[in-house]
Amino acid sequence: MSSIRSCCSQRCLHGLVGLSIGNSRGSAILSFLQRQTKTSQTSERTFSSTSSLSSWLAPKRGHNEKNRKGRPRMRTGGSTKGTTVVWGDYGLRMRDHDRRIAAKQLQIAADAIKMRLRGQRYRLYTRVCANIGVYTKGNEVRMGKGKGSFDYWAARVAVSRVLFELKGDLHEQIVRDAFRLAGNKLPGLYEFVRKGDPPVMGITKVEAGTTLEEMQRPKVKLPMDVTAGRIPATTPP
After folding, report:
1. Phi/psi zone of residue 157: left (φ > 0), alpha (ψ -120 to 50 degrees), beta?
2. Residues 34, 26: contact at Cβ < 8 Å?
3. Cα distance from N-terminal residue to C-terminal residue, the chain
4. Which helix (H) or strand (E) holds 90?
5. In degrees, to the nearest 5, what angle opens at C-alpha 46 toward C-alphas 40 and 51?
6. What sign does the dihedral 213-218-219-221 (CA atoms) show?
């Protein structure tokens, strides 16, 4: 690009020289333009240190290696990460079971939210990233010979995971309606959550009656006489 610019500048200078022959101001104009081209070439940046905005619908690395199909992780060790609203005021959370959602479906859901909130002042946060490659093969193809060619990007979304968050001067009913439209575009069942709602461990909400320490406590195997005493008798003693 710099070589092209220098060639173009040289051509412009030669043209000005040809036009300014016999003119007293030609030499002054020519020297001024030469100084300008030199300063522009020295101050020109051939690269940018600012990182480009990464897309949440495709990873930056590309599809160099083929991903396994896999399953979303079920956090059974006591972790409630990703189940609460962090940055926004309201959120959309999955509540039925884990699944793989395509990047196109996530984009359609985000567009539905933006279409419903057109003209409002808000900020939309995305809590998932489509970083799993899906590979397909044609119909009536014999078994073997690889996984096939790359088809689309997808995201593994675990159960009780928050997908979108909204923050802004919005009425709660408007946000509910926007999330309802987004949930209709996505596979599965979803629920509306607010900032400050209790987290979820697996499919159990950690509320007032259920504590995190109690759920993390290992199950104790009781003796037979204790468990037998809890079984209701069919006949009176």
Report:
1. beta
2. no
3. 96
4. strand 90-94
5. 130
6. negative
Pairing verdict, β 90-94 and 162-168: antiparallel
CA angle 130, 131, 133 (to 5 degrees): 105
Tally Cβ neighbours within 10 Å of residue 227. 10
| Residue 98 banded pLDDT, cuts 50, 70, 90 | confident
Distance CA 210, CA 154 (A): 34
Q: Which two tokens stand for residue 77?
A: 């060790």
Mean of pLDDT over the chain: 78
Task: Please determine, for residue 62, whether its predicted confidence score (pLDDT) is greater than 90.
Answer: no
Query: In this predicted model, what pLDDT tens digit does every residue of 119-169 receive, in sequence order?
Result: 999 999 999 999 899 998 888 888 888 888 889 999 999 888 999 999 999
Residue partners of 125: CB distance under 8 A and separation at least 6: 87, 88, 164, 165, 166, 167
pLDDT at residue 123 in the model: 94
Tokens of 157: 């979304």
Query: Considering the chain, what percentage of its residues have pLDDT values greater than 90?
Result: 35
Q: Is 207 helix (H, G, I), strand (E, B) or coil?
A: coil
**What are the helix (H) ranges across 167-223?**
172-185, 212-216
CA dihedral (38, 40, 43, 47) positive or negative = negative
Spatial CB neighbours of 130, under 8 Å, sequence gap ≥ 6: 56, 57, 58, 59, 101, 102, 103, 106, 153, 154, 155
CA distances from 132 to 82, 109, 128, 157, 179 (A): 18, 19, 11, 11, 24
